[in-house]
Amino acid sequence: MKIPSLILTSALTLSLGADTVYTVPQGYTKVTIAAAPSAGSTSLTAISATLLNELAFSGAATIDSASFDADPDDNPQTVDGVQEVSVSGVTWTEGQWTNEPHVVYVADGNDAEQAFLISSHTTTGEITLSTPFDLTRSTDHDKDASTPDQARFPSSTNLKIRPANTLQSIFTTQISDFAGDDRIFVWTGSEWTSFLRNGFGNWAPATSPFGNANDTVIFPDEGMFILRTATTDITLTLFGEVPAVNQITNLQQQALLSSRIPIDTTLSGLGLNNSDWNPDDRAFIWNGTEWVGYFVNGLGNWAPDTNPFGNSNDLLIEANSAVFVTREASISDAADAAVITPLNYNPFEPTSEIGQ
């Protein structure tokens, strides 16, 4: 697999005696926001940020299943569950992980990882994660009633803390290139929220242009939709670590889903066609002018809405793009809604093999 859009700056394999130590490659990728085709018109581009921010902490942790609270603010209209995770033998400073947003990547039993926002923490290793479900809740992973249920995440696991992607971290180095009428759209699960560059050099909600939304978190599985009014492209240069394990997304009903990996993949490579998928569910690909719908047909293949007997399994999904996904029927329990995007590369291959 070649990576034309990803430049690796470090992909080392070190032999130490009888052991081989691998370092996950770092690199950068360029993401283009398309220009408006002419003055007075607009363009729309679906993008995502798939490289991981620098590793701030890694270690063994224990998830406290008894600590899960599905509704800590007693507001049934919000989905704001929390759960406690503890790391022993560490000392952290007050606000170390919350003064600026940080996420925790938690490893499941198959070493795939999912990211959760840190809502608070103590100085002695206790972390409160924002999560809509009990991380240790047992689920029927293979949808086979004859096999035992498994916990989504084992109570003893490994976690990695990284700075969260925000509007500021993704876009601010190019903020002066954005026109005042440009917009960044983020899908909330039920509607689009839009942001603009205001006169103070901040990202602000379009409904409150004097505000400051710089710290709005863009989760690893979230895509963004960019409306461009100027007739020049904007090229974002994003730096980070290449994902080294499969990536987990929770998809209950609708999402603008990040492509999750920093190289080109295919529609079948997104991992959407799992046992929860049915023919009424849809994946929509933005082609520059409109959304084109695809579904899984009776032959088990992805097919265009316009040709149900077609086969679009190998349809190109560009690196750092986004796909709008909608399920006809919502999966009511968030713990059952996992979608796993597999890696289509070996992150430990020599640079000359995967970076040319």
Describe this structure in words.
This protein is mainly β and 356 residues long. It folds into two domains: 1-47 and 166-356, no CATH class; 57-163, Thrombin, subunit H (Beta Barrel). Helix content is 3%, strand content 39%. The chain has two helices and 27 strands. The chain has helices spanning 167-171, 351-354; strands at 6-10, 13-16, 19-22, 26-33, 43-47, 57-69, 82-86, 102-107, 113-121, 126-130, 138-139, 150-151, 156-163, 183-187, 192-197, 203-205, 224-228, 234-241, 247-250, 254-258, 265-266, 282-286, 291-296, 302-304, 316-317, 322-326, 338-341. The strands form eight sheets. A six-stranded antiparallel β-barrel has the order 6-7-10-9-8-13. The longest helix is centred in the middle third of the chain and has 5 residues, at 167-171. Mean pLDDT is 88; it is low at 10-21 and 351-356.
Described by strand count, sense and barrel closure, the largest sheet is:
6 strands, antiparallel, barrel
Strand proportion, as a percent range, falls in 35-45%
**How many domain units?**
2
- Unreliable stretches, pLDDT < 50, 5 or more residues? 10-21, 351-356
**Strand order of the main beta sheet, please?**
6-7-10-9-8-13
Distance between the termini: 9 Å
Number of helices: 2
Averaged pLDDT, please? 88
Set down the secondary structure blueprint.
Blueprint: E1 6-10, E2 13-16, E3 19-22, E4 26-33, E5 43-47, E6 57-69, E7 82-86, E8 102-107, E9 113-121, E10 126-130, E11 138-139, E12 150-151, E13 156-163, H1 167-171, E14 183-187, E15 192-197, E16 203-205, E17 224-228, E18 234-241, E19 247-250, E20 254-258, E21 265-266, E22 282-286, E23 291-296, E24 302-304, E25 316-317, E26 322-326, E27 338-341, H2 351-354
Antiparallel strand pairs: 1-4, 2-3, 4-18, 5-17, 6-7, 6-13, 7-10, 8-9, 8-13, 9-10, 11-12, 14-15, 14-17, 15-16, 19-27, 20-26, 21-25, 22-23, 22-26, 23-24
